[in-house]
Amino acid sequence: MANSFSTIRIRSHAGVLTITLNRPSALNAFNADMGVELGAAFRMAQRDDKTRAVVLTGTGRAFCAGQDLRELPAAAADGAQPEMKDLGDHLRENINPLVLRMRTIEKPVVAAINGVTAGAGVSFALAADLRICSADATFKMAFAHIGLVPDAAATLTLVRTVGHAHATELCMLDEEISAERALQIGLVNRVVDDAALPGAGQALAEQLAALPQQAIGLTKRALNHAWMATLDDQLEYEAMLQSTAGRGADHKQRVRAFLDKRAPGSTAD
Amino acid sequence: MARDILTEVDGQVGVAHISRPAALNALNQGTMDELVAALQHFDNDPRIRCMLLTGDERAFATGADAADQVDASSVEMQQRDPFARWDEIDQLRKPVVAAVNGYALGSGCELVLACDIVVAGETARFGHPEINLGIIPGAGATQRLTRLIGRARAMDLILTGRKILAREALDMGIVSRVVPRENVAEEARKICHDLCQQAPLAVRLAKVAVRKSQDMSLSAGLALERSLCYSLFATDDQKEGMRASMENRPPVFAGR
Q1: φ, ψ at A76 (rounded to 5°)
Q2: Kind and range of the H or E element at A77?
Q3: pLDDT tens across B55-84, in order?
Q4: Could you tell me if B180 lies within 8 Å of chain A, comparing CB atoms?
Q5: Is A111 left (phi over 0), alpha (psi -120 to 50) or beta?
Q6: Predicted-complex ipTM score
Q7: A interface mutation test: which of B167, B183, B184, B190 has the most A CBs within 10 A?
């Protein structure tokens, strides 16, 4: 697959599009170019029928160290005009659309966390559907220490993923935690040996890619909806999505295949 | 001849489907003429009890083609009076259910406002971008939207031209229900079929009473409601409806 990107690399294999952050000398810090390129890569993943799952990972010893601080207005030399004027606008224009894209693409996204993860790097990892990390990966919210608020939906996704108490500790105390601790609190789904991470990420994504695509996409939508739903709401929402899934060819084919495997002459429940 | 409006009859439901995919269902004069004709035809057909209005996945309806109007003079617009067509939608006597996916913008949004029950997909978008074209809404939004959602929200939408998603439209009171986009057509059809089971005269007068309430004083509206309600006691369907309730069975309405 042609690669015309400079801050990321993309690779397509076995139905999986792997997006690799590629600014290793900056610990894959997020900058303006990366924002544009990630947006394009996710749009590509959405539109390409051959892509059934996405892996997001990093080059070098970091997954992503978060926003490149050199782009912040606070970093501008005295008298210099920073490109970025307001952090809120920066979120609205460059970061939030990316988070929305990761949550609304109806294909599973796996974050294969290969090392140091901080700030918006944690947020992006949380915006993925599943997280698998290397044993030497570390996590730090990093916002509080530079006088900022966790963003890119971390205040929501972190609470939903690890619970209010752990989220508060991570955001307010802003201490670095290990892969082992991350696994304990549920921040990541799995931990593997460093060398095994790329293969494990691809394998997990291929496993997801092999599942009925519409069902997985609708499941993602239902899980998104659950964040803010009441029980009544969610029951009705599931019913509507199930109406659609029940008409899918995958469903019919798989149910028949399952029933056909039963011994002839046996009665269905 | 290519038609912008595809029609079908589904039981007692008259379906009108706006289909100009290359133009994102822009409502130019020809399209509206066709649409009004189709809906009036259903309104006058005794076999039809309810109407369903829908668009495509990407767009329900967007405003008039700018190309259609860019060089028009004020006199031409007065003479053409394109926006008067929306009043004719308003005057339909049978209920109109809108099934909205994609964009409902400008006079397309005003078309939604002219419908009675609106089912929107989660990713549907509503808005009034007329301000960005140097004009104001002309098919009723400044009047209908304001009455529907109140001044504060109407000012926000009409002055800023921002687009809103279905959930916000639901909160504001612009749409009646929000469902996943794949369920819009089915949900709208279900509502239509349910409406077809109701007493047609009662449905018609309910629509009149509710719409008139935004057009008259409370005391006059109450008097109207009462007189319409009492008038239904002359119908067989009222007797049947109340008897069925007393006998604990579903009513069978004959339409008289």
Answers
A1: -65, 140
A2: none
A3: 999 999 999 888 888 999 999 999 999 999
A4: yes
A5: beta
A6: 0.85
A7: B183
Query: Both A47 and A180 in a single domain?
Result: yes
d(CA B247, CA A186): 58
- Would you say the C-alpha torsion A19, A23, A27, A30 has a positive or negative sign? negative
Place A3 in a pLDDT band, splitting at 50, 70 and 90: low
Give me the half-sphere count of Cα atoms (radius 13 Å) on the Cβ side of residue A236. Answer: 11
A268 has a pLDDT exceeding 80: no
Q: Is 1.20.1070.10 the CATH classification of the domain at B5-196?
A: no
**Helix segments in B47-199, DSSP class H:** 66-69, 74-80, 85-90, 107-113, 141-149, 151-160, 166-172, 184-197
Q: Considering just the CA atoms, what is the radius of gyration of chain A in Å? A: 20
Fold of the B199-246 domain: Lyase 2-enoyl-coa Hydratase; Chain  A, domain 2 (1.10.12)
Encoding tokens for residue B23? 């133009």
Residue written as tokens 């996704």? A157
Q: A166 and A128, same structural domain?
A: yes
Tokens of A255: 């149910």
Residue A269 has pLDDT above 50, yes or no: no
The answer to whether the Cβ–Cβ distance between A221 and B179 falls below 8 Å is: no
B146-197 pLDDT per residue, tens: 999 999 999 999 999 999 999 999 999 999 999 999 999 999 999 999 999 9
Q: Given a cut of 90, is residue A78 above it in pLDDT?
A: no
The alpha carbon of residue B183 is apart from the nearest alpha carbon of chain A, in Å, by: 7
Q: How far is B56 from chain A (nearest CA, A)?
A: 18
Q: How far is CA A200 from CA A136, A203, B162, in A?
A: 15, 5, 44
CA distances from B198 to A149, B193, B203, B234 (A): 55, 9, 7, 17
Range of the domain at A203: 8-209
Dihedral angle sign, alpha carbons of residues A97, A100, A106, A107: positive
Q: Which two tokens stand for residue A58?
A: 């990093």
